[in-house]
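User
Take a look at the entry that follows and flag anything odd:
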Amino acid sequence: MDSIQFLELLGSKPALACGLAYAEGVAALKVDSAEQRALLARDGSVLSRLLDGRPAIYCMISTPDEQAPLKDPGDRDDDQGPGREEEDEPDGMVDQ
């Protein structure tokens, strides 16, 4: 198990992040001593550098501008491109 897998395990079982269970878990990892020291010190910035992580990660949420809700998902005006007419027949069918 590497450092990332260990952190994933801690996320799924937070009880392992406390006391002796944490230290034993870190000791059992097959990682270099620098990673083990960073994990034991709970130093995320050092661990991130050791794992070539990004210095900063941002999460942004974008919401659309308010608009009147559509009556039906098929009622969009932009479904028909300019110069295109709506066909009454399914694709490949020609009314003769």
Notes: The chain has a mean pLDDT of 81. Helices lie at 3-12, 19-27, 33-40, 44-50. Residues 3-12 form the longest helix (10 residues).
